[in-house]
## 1
Amino acid sequence: MVGPTTLNSVVLIALAAAMAPLLAQAFGRWISIPSTVIEIVLGIVIGPAALGIAHKDDFVNTLSNFGLVLLFFLAGYEVDFTRIKGGPLTRAASSWAVSLVLGLAIGALLALMVGSGAAGGFTIGLALTTTALGAILPILRDAGTLPTPLGAQTMAVGAVGEFAPLVAVAVLLSGRAPLRSIVVLGVFALIAVGAAILAVRPMPPRMSRAITVTLGTSGQFAVRLIVLVVLALVWLATRLDLDVILGAFAAGITIRLLLNSTGEREIETIESKIDGLAFGLFIPFFFVVTGIGFDLRALVSSASAIALVPIGLVAFMVVRGLPVGFAFRRHLPAPELKALRLYAATELPLVVVITGIGVDNDWLTAATAAGLVGAAMLSVLLYPLLALRSTAPSSVTATATVVP
């Protein structure tokens, strides 16, 4: 049974989630603030750092983790390999390799600044190489950018910026020997590829008919099937001692391949239902709980952690934005290239995850983690806003394009 204290927190989190889009709309008269940022800020307000009226416990953490799972599921689902294969994906991968080198170098310097050891420097460096594809996808979708060449390039950069750090976390931060981690990851990859191959095959007529017939009934077979695939791959990832978000990302890719054989109208209906489930409940729950767990007191008590907020914001741009800008410099006009750099430097969910691993293993202090997460929250607030302003409506062509 859920106790009254837990229920109080759940209701307050739901209240914050409901208020966030209203506040975003109100602030939109002067400045466009992503709803995710407002959700985090409201979480800080109701959490222990301020009012202290909402708290995390096992039940709240479970709901929050499911929100994180759905965030990465949708990130994987939005990756359209027919649009990003070839040049965009190659450039995204090569730019991430440069980001990794830069990130580890800057991470080592920042570790010296905050008094962390080599493991802390590696953790900071890895966190700097991420891109918050799940956080910027709603912004790209609402702005009508996803079907454009800029949308395809951003999708490629974001997919690599989330998947590559996840693999690095699985191999290097899991606590296992690297060779054993690679073997475990390989087993998971084989199973995930097998699921993807099955998904590409034509859907059995009975299954296709069940999806169509139950879309408007209480059966909701399509939604239940998607939830099953997500939970199955997340369960597999946990059984192999991998992070759940790796399973969620793989599930998103698998479901996209599975639905390719479904009619366009059915896909639109299914997507609207999944969006309602994810963005209506679980994803905002994750961001509000992220705010509740944000250690503001540890941040303000440490001068080096406070300094890490603006330094981290700049480091995101140096580590992610500059290599991406160089790799794509001949493939986008100047305003869209600037936007791509800004989107690439937008980070948050994986920064929360990676710094959390660092704190759990005593590689990072809570104050250092709070400084990096604070920088990531600022990146979600500032960089997409600057990216949207850099691309005039006339410069965005609203047609789906395979980018060379």
Note: The CA atoms of residues 147 and 399 lie 6 Å apart.
## 2
Amino acid sequence: MEKVQKLPTFAWILVISFIVLPLVRIGVGYLPFHYLMENMTILVGLLLYILAYRTYKFARNPIILFIGITYFYASLLGILHTMTYKGMNLIPGITSDFPTQYWIARRFIETIGVLLATIIGKKEISPLRLHVSFGLITAILIAAISLGIFPSCYIDGSGLTPFKKISEYVILVISAITLVRLKRQIPNLGASYAKSLAGAILVGMVAEFCFTLYSSVYDTFNVIGHLLYFASNGLIAVFVINESLDKPYGTIFEEVYQRSIRDRLTGLFNRHGLEEMAGTVFKRAARIPSGFTLLFMDIDNFKRVNDLYGHPEGDLALIEFGKLLRESFREYDMIARVGGDEFVVLLEDMETPASSEVPESRLMSAVEGWAKGNPRRLVLGLTIGRAYRAKGDHASLDDMIAEADAELLRKKGSKTG
């Protein structure tokens, strides 16, 4: 089951910024606010790219790499948008049309890039080819704007042009298509991760709608739009952090942990895993009283299989016996291999010592059929020792193993005697 994660630190920074930045706007005016807002958004985009690119060899998620490279080139256009903004006076002869054109170019790069990322899914992609493709498209857009070929987006004195408004609505449609496409990526991303990306896209769509309403580059709708756009970028960054760091590294650590508690050959718990799981079960039983039965078992004549047919055949026999154990006991019973041919099963919710007789009988019948069904298993048998703790009695794994082992040795002795 997918866990719902707590809000990451980055998201808290995002929330706080969304509260503080409007105060900056009121205190220092629009131009410093816009400069700060854009630089923070550009920084987020560049960090998003670095994170996605550098972790790709671990995450192996083309969607994240595609989004990261998309936002790298969008950030380059964002830098030009900021430098040419009205009032910055960094480049002579610049009108309000230039930053608006760079803005539209930037948003087309972002929205189309994210859409393509949802289409590509898990297909392998070349980072170099992506860089070349996005770099070429970005260069063409910059050249078109610089040479006056790109359609006008804002005219001083009259406001937004029809092209600018239509472009914003086209961007909204592209974003809506991306949301639909995201449903198909749930198997690749996971439901909660897909929802977080969908939330970022929705916030971006609201921002886009605000950018269709302003009449002046210093308009209130422009302020709201920039705030929501920053929030959308930040939420995408949170999504990339989860996908490129939390998920893959969580998987790696989970695999390492499972290897530490599982027997390499049979996949059952090893001694360490049994001790760890049993400790948790016994602690729970202290709150909710439960009876326990521990079965300690040893495969009879196992050494003869190794001697007659070799250790690979002995390993195969252990694997087969592990499968018999899984089939004979309940899914939540703890089954472990604690020695060469020694196994332990810890059963919860045992009302009496006789409660384990049914699964024990089922296992003995399975072992008998297993031995008869393969000439190389005919020499094998099974001896089981049992230890029981009633509800409320002190249960210690070591004590129960020692008690069950003592009974097993008595039974072994009677067989040889």
Note: The chain has 15 helices and six strands.
## 3
Amino acid sequence: MKQSVNFYDFERAFRTMDRDNHFSYHGLRALFDYLEEMEEDTGEEIELDVIALCCEFSEYTSALEAADNYSWDLGLDDDADEEEKETAAREWLNDETIVVDVDGGGIIIQDF
């Protein structure tokens, strides 16, 4: 049996499972929108499993923070500025996994 879920239901499910601090409000919204878009693109419904989503996706304040979490080697000159590092980190993450932009800054990635 399947049930349609709106954002309010999605957010409440995280709260009910004591996972409301795993993603920011904007991060949760970005993840919800991504999952809805994926359902539309594939034509397949996704089961809402809060624990699985928390294990599968992580939110970071920047692409550089996410890449650093995976011990990414910048491969850039030492004099590269923060914008160059952020761009390189985002490119690397896009090659490795799913990257979802969060309104107001930050990203969510599918863990790998």
Note: The beta strands are 57-60, 99-101, 107-110.
## 4
Amino acid sequence: MKRFVLTPAAKADLAEIAAFIGRDNPRAAGRVLAEIRNAMRRLASSPRMGHLREDLVEEPVRFWPVYSYLILYRPETRPLEILRVLHGARDVRSILQED
């Protein structure tokens, strides 16, 4: 059984992150993606590690930072459902409202 699954939006987020960082430094892009995936595995083992952001979303979605990125996930799902991976400088509230 998979420990976590990515929504289509999360897959697109990771591809966008890889492309953006990879333009300047492909090795750094690989390192960042590896750290994000390692964090996802840790979250799957301990899904309550993240924090709630009721100011951003009313659902019981948790957030976990990796570098400048936020992993958004549903802690009660098995396998753990990764909803998005967003840069912290983006307007996360607006993005989530669009989803």
Note: The mean pLDDT is 94.
